[in-house]
Design goal:
Shape: extended
CATH topology of the largest domain: SH3 type barrels
Helix content: under 10%
Oligomer: single chain
Protein name: Agenet domain-containing protein
Distance between the termini: 36 Å
Order of helices and strands: EEEEEEEEEEE
Biased composition (Basic and acidic residues): 71-80
Region (Disordered): 1-34, 57-85
CATH architecture of the largest domain: Roll
Number of domains: 2
C-alpha cells in the first residue's frame, strides 16, 4: 500500500467525475474463450490489475511473448502449439506493449468494460478505446495504436506539425514556408 512520509495510508482527492464503481460482476463461465473473436478487445487480470488486451492469433514458431519464455505457474509443460495440456484458453496481446500471452485461462479474462456517462459499456471489435481518464477521454487512436490526447471538441488529422509564432503579444500560425526564430516559436506535433 502507498504511504505518506509519516507512515499513514496515502489519501488523495480526485474529481468526482473520475470516480467510477466496479465493473459488473461476472460468473465463472459467463465469457467462454470461444465467445471472444480474434481482434476483440478484452481485459486480462495480470499482476493484480486489469490490463487492456486484444485477442490474438497464437504465435507462430519463433515468435515469443513474455509468458512463453517461462513455464506456467502450475508447473505443467506446454504443448508445441503453446497451449497448456488439459485446459482451454486464449492467446492475448497487450494493447500498448509488444507482449503476447499464448495461453490465458478464461477466468482471467473479462470484456473490455468502459464507464461512460454513468453506465458500463462493453467495447466490441472495432470500437475506439475509452481510457478511464479525463485527460484522454477525447483522444483518438493513431494508426500505430497509440492514444494521442487532443483538446475537447477538436478534430486533428494524424501526424501533422503546427508551427506557432508569438508576434506582438499574440500567438499565430506561421506560414508553412516561413520558419520563426527559435526564441519566438513553439512546435507541436500530433
Amino acid at each position: 500500500a502507498l504511504e505518506e512520509s509519516d507512515g499513514q495510508p496515502l489519501r488523495e482527492w480526485q474529481p468526482r467525475e473520475l470516480i467510477r464503481p466496479r465493473p459488473p460482476a461476472t460468473t465463472a463461465d459467463a465469457f467462454p474463450p470461444e465467445g471472444f473473436a480474434e481482434g476483440m478487445p478484452i481485459q486480462m487480470l495480470y499482476n493484480d490489475g486489469w490490463w487492456e488486451c486484444v485477442v490474438s492469433p497464437p504465435p507462430t514458431k519463433g515468435t515469443t511473448g513474455s509468458s512463453s519464455k517461462r513455464p506456467p505457474k502450475d508447473g505443467r509443460r506446454r504443448s508445441a502449439d503453446g497451449s497448456t495440456p488439459g485446459k482451454g484458453g486464449l492467446c492475448v496481446r497487450f494493447l500498448h506493449y509488444e507482449e503476447i500471452h499464448p495461453h490465458v485461462d478464461a477466468s482471467a479474462l473479462r470484456p473490455a468494460w468502459v464507464w461512460y456517462e454513468a453506465e458500463w459499456l462493453w467495447r466490441v471489435e472495432g470500437g475506439a478505446l475509452q481510457p478511464l481518464s479525463d485527460r484522454h477521454l477525447d483522444g483518438k487512436l493513431s494508426k500505430d495504436g497509440v492514444l494521442r490526447p487532443v483538446p475537447r471538441r477538436a478534430f486533428l488529422p494524424n501526424a501533422f506539425t503546427l508551427e506557432l509564432a508569438y508576434t506582438d503579444g499574440e500567438w499565430e500560425m506561421a506560414p508553412a514556408d516561413e520558419h520563426a526564430a527559435d526564441d519566438e516559436s513553439i512546435e507541436a506535433e500530433w
